[in-house]
Recover the amino acids of this structure.
């Protein structure tokens, strides 16, 4: 059955510096009825600081991190930042979390990437415990032991550490947590533990792949939500144009980077998405080309059909027609990428009516 879509704006992370006119973009999104705006982080700008700065100049639009990388901060540090920003924004924060990938986790943060699902489960549990303020927070580990335990070659504890309780009350004990997930196990974890799923490279043509994983999570003991009150926020480029071929060519380098060069060839979680969609041979070719330095050839090798499945590109009428598949899907929030005023206005017209 067709459903209503909320609309969000993904501004991502910075390129060379702060994006010009960001405050005006957010204010315009708020005026047009956008539900949320989302920042990101990789190994440059962080996801939280821009929301605090820009959010101070808006009133009601929700402020989402898409994503906070869990290896960048201890659970307690993320819990503190989240409850602080939620207070400052009047309860508008959505805390999007993700594990990132081994190149960033091990190369940038100097942390082990092992057991990402187990680490995420433990991390979220500590966040919830801190915000609940039912008592001093302890965690037996093994990934984030509280208090610090030492062992396994780590320095011995001083013995002075003690369980603590947050010194301030959160504005909302239930700050919403969304999980960025691409594989079925991680998607199921989002459905079990979180309030929403941040879907990257989503295609409504392959809806059943995601429905099965989500249903597995909803069916687990203690799941927070069912499908009726769980937000699926999917990101997609939206380009209104009378020259769809040129627009598709414009996004090819981005897909070539993510599918061909993001992470190692043996551990590229982004590439696994089109592989599950049936494009394994094409993805392997894209990876071979990209990793051998042939980036333009890799971009040219992205199948037009795959780009069409992952994007909303075309004339206004064509995009309006394509949106029907999204309304029939599990998606409840459409996150458009970019922020030029005309695209934002047309997106609001097409999605929100």
């Amino acid at each position: 059955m067709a459903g209503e879509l909320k609309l969000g704006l993904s501004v991502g992370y910075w390129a060379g510096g702060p994006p010009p006119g960001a405050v005006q973009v957010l204010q315009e999104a708020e005026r047009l009825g956008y539900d949320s705006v989302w920042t990101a982080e990789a190994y440059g700008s962080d996801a939280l600081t821009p929301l605090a700065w820009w959010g101070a100049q808006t009133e009601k639009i929700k402020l989402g991190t898409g994503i906070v990388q869990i290896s960048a901060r201890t659970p307690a540090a993320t819990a503190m930042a989240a409850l602080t920003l939620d207070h400052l924004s009047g309860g508008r924060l959505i805390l999007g979390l993700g594990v990132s990938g081994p190149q960033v986790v091990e190369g940038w943060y100097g942390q082990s990437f092992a057991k990402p699902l187990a680490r995420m489960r433990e991390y979220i549990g500590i966040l919830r415990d801190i915000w609940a303020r039912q008592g001093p927070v302890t965690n037996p580990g093994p990934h984030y032991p509280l208090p610090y335990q030492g062992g396994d070659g780590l320095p011995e504890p001083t013995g002075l550490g003690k369980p603590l309780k947050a010194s301030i009350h959160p504005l909302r004990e239930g700050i919403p947590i969304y999980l960025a997930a691409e594989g079925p196990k991680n998607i199921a974890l989002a459905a079990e533990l979180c309030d929403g799923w941040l879907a990257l490279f989503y295609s409504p043509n392959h809806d059943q792949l995601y429905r099965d994983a989500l249903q597995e999570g909803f069916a687990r003991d203690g799941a927070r939500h069912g499908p009726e009150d769980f937000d699926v926020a999917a990101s997609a480029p939206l380009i209104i144009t009378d020259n769809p071929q040129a627009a598709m060519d414009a996004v090819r380098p981005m897909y070539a980077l993510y599918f061909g060069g993001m992470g190692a060839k043996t551990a590229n979680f982004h590439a696994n998405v089109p592989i599950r969609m049936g494009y394994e041979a094409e993805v392997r070719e894209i990876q071979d080309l990209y990793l051998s330095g042939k980036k333009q050839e890799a971009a040219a090798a992205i199948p037009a059909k795959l780009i069409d499945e992952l994007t909303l590109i075309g004339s206004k009428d064509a995009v309006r027609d394509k949106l029907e598949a999204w309304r029939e899907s599990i998606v409840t929030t459409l996150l458009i990428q970019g922020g030029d005023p005309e695209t934002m206005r047309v997106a609001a017209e097409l999605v929100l009516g």
